[in-house]
Amino acid sequence: WSQRGQEPKSLAEPNSNLSKMRILVAEDSEDNQLLIEYLLRRSGAEVVIVGNGREAIREALVNHYDAIVM
Hints:
Blueprint: E1 22-26, H1 30-42, E2 46-50, H2 53-62, E3 67-69
Parallel strand pairs: 1-2, 1-3
């Protein structure tokens, strides 16, 4: 499919839209942690993973993040 003549980007192609962003991810599933970290780092983000929302709050209070994903 294409929109206005543009071909869709392949999932295999890295995208640098997140370059230099610091992203905090709160996720309890180790499999999801690995997948999310892989995708975000591949897009150029610096990623910090914590295991739950309580840890995310503690982390966010002492460090700066451009985005927090829960």
